[in-house]
Amino acid sequence: MKIVKLKDFKINDSFEEFYNWLQKDLNQVNKIILESLETDSSLITELSNHIIGSGGKRIRPLLTLATARLCHYSGNRHLTLASVIEFIHTATLLHDDVVDGSKKRRGKKTANFIWGNKSSILVGDFLLSKAFKILINDGSLKCIDIVSNVSEKISFGEVKQLMSIGKLNVSESDYLEIIGFKTAELFSAACQLSSEISEIDFTKKKSLKDFGYFLGIAYQIIDDTLDYFSEEKISGKEIGNDFKENKMTLPLILFFKRGNKKEKNLIQHMVQNKKLNDSDFNWVSEKMKNYDILDDCLQKARHFSIMAKDSLGTFPDNEEKRKLINLVNFLTHRKN
Amino acid sequence: MKIVKLKDFKINDSFEEFYNWLQKDLNQVNKIILESLETDSSLITELSNHIIGSGGKRIRPLLTLATARLCHYSGNRHLTLASVIEFIHTATLLHDDVVDGSKKRRGKKTANFIWGNKSSILVGDFLLSKAFKILINDGSLKCIDIVSNVSEKISFGEVKQLMSIGKLNVSESDYLEIIGFKTAELFSAACQLSSEISEIDFTKKKSLKDFGYFLGIAYQIIDDTLDYFSEEKISGKEIGNDFKENKMTLPLILFFKRGNKKEKNLIQHMVQNKKLNDSDFNWVSEKMKNYDILDDCLQKARHFSIMAKDSLGTFPDNEEKRKLINLVNFLTHRKN
User: Fold this and answer.
1) B1 min Cα distance to partner chain A (Å)
2) A1 in a domain, yes or no?
């Protein structure tokens, strides 16, 4: 078995293929989103458009669209439900940026930086309420249940993450719990919604729930790993942010477990006593090389991505499944 | 990183070293066990002695003894608590053999085969009650809580396993849940008991709890993998038992997910329509080679063993920690 290293990675067209496959559906979703944002309040419209239009990959709504195709769903409800998932995600981003005090997201100024924290918080709340309003209009209690559950879990995960800031002793199992709540549950919900509106059996529903969850875990591990090891030239985004914000993500957790006494003391001193800067980050990421941290993080992501792919084993081998498996490979081999 | 293959494995002395290190303590534990079994009922004494003396590795009580040393515990309570863990484990084995209708365990006739199912069930219950009586005598409510929790979880895991028999669609996440309950929780409890009687902080207690849990998962994955891929000459035990009993363990779960339509149909037909025999097993284990199942199972066990080892990162590097890490390596590289 070959271990995937960042440097070995060759950009391939699997995301483009995936995106093109669903582009027509996604355009419809974007239309629903824009229409839902047409309000009397220019603040809501402008701020929402700013963040929703800021160029994310739209992975979560795409998951709803793609799994609906896997389930041979033939109606239009998946478009509405995909927009609900994107609203929930966007509300989370708005609140996250306030909590983290972020000034930039995807290379653009954050909403809180432009319009202030209060506006970001309230528009986040608006998007959340909007999501539920769309859901109630759709009328499925089961779908409302899925989204209200995931919404509670995301908040819970964010609170747990906040509480763990600067706590070097956070365990790997705590970390997996946190990213489970704050990321993987929404990936899972995105897949559960389309399975809910399709005529598939319980086993397949369970498979899609697992698929989304494991993919979400793998995705977040890669995200957190890139924040230490991505080459800025390629990713186009700054790295070291999690470290500078004292966030306990997987690379730092492993380093604090594996480091020697001197290294542990030094990092403890760093985290407790000062605002962390680039040279602290360079020291830490250099030291991590002695403990196989990059390789092990990628291997852990790979573990979950294999679980995600095997979850689809209950579906027949067809083109839709192949595209979803390619998506898993793309997301867990990406460089940014 | 090197992937461990069964054939690459060289027997080393790490278990012998580990065993010798704790032999004096283990002798004391055995003495407590024998004394507790001295009753007026010759059936209880003989049957219990038969199963307890049947040559297991005593991994679970050894974990209590070893982690007590890691915590620099200096009293005698760890000896009693280790015996409690062995009692719980033995009670489970007695009931398991009845449920599975097993005739042999570790090359010897099972208790149910010699004394009948009723005796095995009742002596199992006796050992369970005995464990709690010893615990109440020890007097720690916290320890009683740990053991009563794990006892409930083991039964729950066994019930879930029973319910999953022959269900080819069982998911990997179901499997991980089942082995978590039926195996990993007891490994974890064995470590929690010694952490409870030692003066260590919350973080270290959490680390030991995780350590035991992850080691238990890795251990069970290896166990289930060996039942498909061990060479009988080396292991000295028959293989293919799980398959013939229609148990849904990891290799079969992965094969049913990865196999092509024809293979899925064939195995479905096998499981539903007849008593499975050696030639069915040979077909399945041969087919598994096309889907990297051995490698992937070992890799998954390795994933959890790395997590177990990293959990100990909160303890200083010393001889006790080194011995525990060697134990993890031994247990996840073992051939029988």
Assistant:
1) 7
2) no
Q: Under a CB-based contact definition with an 8 Å cutoff, are residues A263 and A274 in contact?
A: no
Token pair of B204 as six digits: 């270290």
Output Rg (C-alpha) for chain A, integer angstroms: 20
Q: Is B103 exposed, middle or buried (0-12, 13-18, 19+ CB in 10 A)?
A: exposed
Relative to beta strand B104-105, strand A108-109 is: unpaired
Taking the Cβ of residue B24 and every Cβ of chain A, the question of whether any pair is shorter than 8 Å is answered with: no
Token output for B122: 């009742």
Answer yes or no: is pLDDT of A2 > 50. no
Percent of chain B at pLDDT > 90 equals 72
Which CATH number fits the domain that encloses residue B191? Answer: 1.10.600.10
Picking from A143, A125, A41, the residue whose alpha carbon sits closest to that of residue A87 is: A125
CB count within 10 Å of CB A114 equals: 14
Residue numbers of A between 295 and 334 with CB closer than 8 Å to B: 295-296, 299-300, 303, 306-307, 310-314, 316-317
Residue B198 phi, psi (nearest 5)? -105, 165
Report yes or no on B5 lying in a domain. no
DSSP state of B105: E
Cα–Cα distance measured from residue B217 to residue B79, given in angstroms and rounded to the nearest whole number: 25
Q: Closest approach of chain A CAs to the CA of B55, in angstroms?
A: 34
Are B299 and A296 within 8 A, CB to CB? Answer: no
Residues B250, B172 contacting (CB under 8 angstroms): yes
Task: Report the amino acid identity of residue B55.
Answer: G
Is residue A3 less than 8 Å (CB to CB) from chain B? yes
- Any domain includes B3: no
Tokens of B108: 């010897």
Tokens representing B127 are 């050992």
Range of the domain at B290: 12-333
Residues of B in contact with A173 (CB under 8 A): 210, 213, 307, 311
Closest Cα in chain A, distance from residue B247 (Å): 18
Residue A11 carries which side chain, given as an amino acid letter? I
Token pair belonging to B148: 């009563």
- Looking up tokens 């067809």 gives A318
Question: Would A5 be classed as within a structural domain?
Answer: no
User: What length does chain A have?
Assistant: 336
Which residue's structure tokens are 């985290």?
Answer: A271
Q: B210 and A172: CB-CB below 8 Å?
A: yes
The string of pLDDT tens digits covering residues A273-299 is 778 899 999 999 999 999 999 999 999
Cross-chain CB nearest to A169 (options B172, B258, B314): B314
Residue of chain A whose Cα is closest to the Cα of B214: A173
From A256, which residue of chain B is nearest by alpha-carbon distance?
B313
Q: Is B1 on the interface with A (CB under 8 A)?
A: yes
Q: What is the pLDDT of residues A22-70, one digit of tens each?
A: 999 999 999 999 898 888 888 888 888 898 887 788 999 999 999 999 9
- ipTM score of complex: 0.80
As for how many domains chain A has, the answer is: 1
Q: Report d(CA A66, CA A198) in Å as an integer.
A: 12
Tell me what the mean pLDDT of segment B262-269 comes to: 94
